[in-house]
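Lecture notes, unit on binding sites. The following record was shown on slide 14. It pairs a sequence with pyridoxal-5'-phosphate.
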Amino acid sequence: MGTRSPLLLQATPLNAVRGEGVWLHDADGRRHLDFTAGIGVTSTGHCHPRVVAAIQAQAADLIHGQVTTVMHPRLDELSDALCRLLPHTGSVFVSNSGSEAVESAVRLARHAMGRPNIIAFQGGFHGRSIGAASLTTSKLAVRAGLQPLMGGVVFAPFPYAYRYGWSEDETVEFCLAELDYILATTTAPSETAAIIIEPVLGEGGYVPVPDAFMAGLRERCDRHDFLLIADEVQTGVGRTGRMWGMDHSGVRADVVITAKGLASGMPLSAIAATPDLMAAGFPGSQGGTYGGNPVACAAAVATLQVIEEEGLVANSASRGDQLIAGCRELATRHGVIADVRGRGLMIGLELRGDRDHSAGEVVQAVRMAAAEAGLLTLPCGASGQVLRVIPPLVVSEAEVSLGLELLDEAFTKVSAG
Ligand SMILES: Cc1ncc(COP(=O)(O)O)c(C=O)c1O
């Protein structure tokens, strides 16, 4: 009998056999409140009936319409729908995963700009393929033992105010000054193709980018004439209470990367940019066997319709307000909670360790206690010191309240030892 590779680590002990809305069911018939959303993927909840119907109908018509061989109507529908949501773009290229879309964005930036270097941020996560891992510093597991990684990547400090122990304004000022220093000492603007940033630092610890920092990046991209790439793989499609994480600052990126919540769990990713920028790339340099397959595109078109028609972006904002307020209230009673932050339904609780346990160990203990009580959560941060809660965007007020009760129980159990 085959066994699962030990390369695969799992954040919860659950063996899931069925999903419905915010709930996962195990083989023993027990249900679990899923505040992981499959790492931010099941935007419309597990197996939303309209997404299921779209997948079933498309599977009966055409499963594989290979996009470097033929066109298919679902790809056109998806491109239209995405460009309506990103009106400053106009052109879409599709692939399967977030990592692949990040690679596409880097390939496009280097080709279109004719320059080699990419500036990424400390703590950023952009994927596990070698190119995407080269832009990633969220934790050592993604990079260790893989050198030499792709060259031409320069890291700048991310405005993680809690980590620095400064106010947000001080942190933004410092990080923008360091970025200018990097442009004066390490990568000349004339050698720099793009800056890539997640609107909310994801795997690195759930830290929203302050609006002033995003505006500072846009100003430098314009002044020096390089591209701003927004990695919206985790923040996009309503996750942060706006359709795009960038919408909080009002700053527009030249290239937007989306995946995860886009197709409710079918593998699909995309980059969007202006037709002129896409045309400045290298024709035929991008493609793949499966990217943009009709079934995944049908799921994405249905997902975007459900998000619009069921008002899920507004739900993300209001349920996010409820959840973050509830987590802040927990912080008043549980001393291990050091910082609560986030946007919409992308919320992180940074914990503190004690004399005997690191913060990462406390997060793990709380998460396991929560899982036993029926609530699934995830860790993030360089040492797993942040407990993250990311329910599907369909989560109800009662489900948020229940999640908070279960979290409260878990913190109480852990502090009782
Ligand atoms: C911001 C960001 N970029 C890229 C990726 C990589 O996506 P994938 O795991 O689909 O390759 C992720 C995945 O977590 C992500 O959060």
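Take-home: The pocket of pyridoxal-5'-phosphate is lined by residues 39, 97-99, 102, 125-127, 198, 202-203, 231, 233-234, 259 (CB under 6 Å).
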